Model the fold of this input.
Amino acid sequence: MYDLKIFKDQGLLSKPANNRVTFVDHSNDFPSGSSRKRNRTFDLPDPQYIAIHAAIAGVLNMSGAGRFFDELLDKYKDDEGKVSAVRSWPELETLIGEQLLSQSVTQLFQSVQVR
Done:
């Protein structure tokens, strides 16, 4: 069970009661198929990882860096409003570079007059 802390109330369909989230493994709630001997169980989220995530989110929010990353990612959304997943700063730089190159080439072709 975890207490939910929302830094930017946007995009949530509905907040859980008392801002509390409980993870439960429901894998045994479904009948197993005839070809399977027992249901597959799923590991619940690691509390230590969630605590680390919460601490990082808190620092990003308090420092303003979270807003910076939100604006940066919003700036580089594709035509469908999605941002490509990146796992490191160099990957983000590569993504931005590719998008800027694409925009430059598109603008160049649009500015050429055909006679």
